[in-house]
Amino acid sequence: MDIIFYHPSFDNHYWVNALSRALPQANIRIWTRGDNAPADYALVWHPPVEMLKGRTLKGVFALGAGVDAILSQLKNNPDMLGESIPLFRLEDTGMALQMQEYAVSQVLHWFRRFDDYQTLKQQAKWQPLDEYEREDFTIGILGAGVLGAKVAESLHAWGFPLRCWSRSRKSLPGVTSFAGSNELSDFLHGTRVLINLLPNTPETAGIINHSLLEQLADNSYVMNLARGVHVVESDLLQALDSGKVKGAMLDVFNQEPLPANNPLWAHPCVAITPHVAAVTRPAEAIAFISRTIGQLERGEQVSGRVDRQRGY
Ligand SMILES: NC(=O)C1=CN([C@@H]2O[C@H](COP(=O)(O)OP(=O)(O)OC[C@H]3O[C@@H](n4cnc5c(N)ncnc54)[C@H](O)[C@@H]3O)[C@@H](O)[C@H]2O)C=CC1
Ligand SMILES: O=C(O)C(=O)CO
């Protein structure tokens, strides 16, 4: 079995060595331009079109959870990957725990008013503030898939009222489930902390806009852990300036790296991380990929296949 590997920023040699240990029966090579030799599988992130074009592969694995970049490349180059070639993505592989750490720490930061205490500290003011009540701190999670469901589970342990919004109704302990565009307004009404974990699709792009933000509870908080394209940045800035939204924690942006002149950098109510909410963990990702390849080779059911029409 032949496997080609391409990632623009990972240590490709490290990955190929680790993959070779996990799949001793496979010949795994780093793909470089001009390599047209046959391959059964391709493991990729932001691949050049020529890497995949014209190949008859048994499967392509995206080395991350989101497949928006590869699907948008496919839209512009429809012959990059034959319709019948399955595309897979990483499901969890250590990302859920990282999302849980990120979401829980930031929710507690807001709930315990550490943002306000930081402001008071800058004024050298010793001033105990009123506590927030849990029942006024409803957390709404946009997207209740692999990562959203796990984030809900970790916040449930802290006793917050929880709700989620997804395409179909979910059954998650302690979480009120809202489904479909007809129920989005009900989901937003009373939501104090909005956490975004949707995939980037034509239906979800720009979803966090003026109209959505207006429907949140007053003094709400927004955490974007999914993709920058979900947020209309000018609408978020306006909601922050008006006080409707009290704080935002943003990991992803329309343009990455976020340009130095973007007003989000300077806004006192915005916290920023550089797209690190959950990174691909090699050991877990390699275990998932090698297990899935084994299942495919044996003709078994696999999980993680992307529905190209649906867009995630
Ligand atoms: N910031 C970061 O470091 C990372 C960001 N991500 C982002 O997180 C996203 C989510 O990942 P997973 O949970 O693994 O995806 P998933 O596919 O398991 O879950 C997606 C959820 O969104 C819902 N959804 C999709 N379209 C919808 C629509 N039109 N209306 C309502 N609900 C809709 C689905 O029903 C599902 O509940 C990824 O697509 C990726 O963009 C993933 C990993 C790291
Ligand atoms: O896996 C993904 O989709 C990511 O965004 C990794 O940072």
TrEMBL record:
Described purpose of this protein according to its UniProt entry: Catalyzes the NADPH-dependent reduction of glyoxylate and hydroxypyruvate into glycolate and glycerate, respectively.
Catalytic activity from the UniProt record: (R)-glycerate + NADP(+) = 3-hydroxypyruvate + NADPH + H(+); (R)-glycerate + NAD(+) = 3-hydroxypyruvate + NADH + H(+); glycolate + NADP(+) = glyoxylate + NADPH + H(+)
Name listed for the protein in its UniProt record: Glyoxylate/hydroxypyruvate reductase A
Record-annotated active site: R227, H275 (proton donor)
Keyword Oxidoreductase: yes
Domain D-isomer specific 2-hydroxyacid dehydrogenase NAD-binding: 105-277
Subcellular location: Cytoplasm
Protein family according to the UniProt entry: Belongs to the D-isomer specific 2-hydroxyacid dehydrogenase family. GhrA subfamily.
Database matches in NCBIfam families: PRK15469.1
Taxonomic lineage: Bacteria, Pseudomonadati, Pseudomonadota, Gammaproteobacteria, Enterobacterales
Keyword tags: Cytoplasm, NAD, NADP, Oxidoreductase
Gene giving rise to this polypeptide: ghrA
